[in-house]
């Protein structure tokens, strides 16, 4: 069973998410949180597989809560957002979120996204990921740009995989593009994340965009 903690301050939205997730035979809603502080406390207590995290919540916002949950390795985080909250989502991805979903995502895709994140891949809606990354790549940099020197640790193949992640490609799509087995792609992704000190492949995608590779 995939154990999920749902963190959403709007009770009606939270109830809907719980209902959808509870309908899946392999997903169990382990707990519900109405604010960021409660989300962190419950993540520490329940140790779920995935936290479905809203970005705008009282007491502690979703970005700060994500940073704590990921930093303490309590669970993988899947962020809920709308496009007018891109900046919040970007912060959540930097904090280590495994991916994000739009709040208007249908039930089938919500369940699939939770399974994807629980499975360790963390790529949710690649087309949406590409749009988000592209929007931020086009904006003025608000913080120091990434140092290209970090790429020196990567092999040529790892750089190629990183470039594909920057386009928001899934493991299967990377495998097809680079003509390698999907299992090999997963290995390269794991290694490059370790070398670059990143928590998620989405962070790697943002880095690839920042470095223009």
Automatic annotation (TrEMBL):
PROSITE patterns listed in its UniProt record: HTH_LUXR_1, HTH_LUXR_2, RESPONSE_REGULATORY
InterPro entries to which the protein is assigned, alphabetical: CheY-like_superfamily (IPR011006), NreC/VraR/RcsB-like_REC (IPR058245), Sig_transdc_resp-reg_C-effctor (IPR016032), Sig_transdc_resp-reg_receiver (IPR001789), Tscrpt_reg_LuxR_C (IPR000792), WalR-like (IPR039420)
The keyword Ion transport appears for this protein: no
Domain HTH luxR-type: 147-212
Post-translational modification 4-aspartylphosphate, affected residues: 54
Domain of life of the organism encoding this protein: Bacteria
Cleavable signal peptide: none
Residue stretches making up the Response regulatory domain: 3-118
Keyword set includes Phosphoprotein: yes
Keyword annotations from UniProtKB, A to Z: DNA-binding, Phosphoprotein, Transcription, Transcription regulation
PANTHER family: TRANSCRIPTIONAL REGULATORY PROTEIN NARL-RELATED, TWO-COMPONENT RESPONSE REGULATOR
Name of protein: Response regulator transcription factor
Organism: Streptomyces violaceorubidus
Organism taxonomic ancestry: Bacteria, Bacillati, Actinomycetota, Actinomycetes, Kitasatosporales
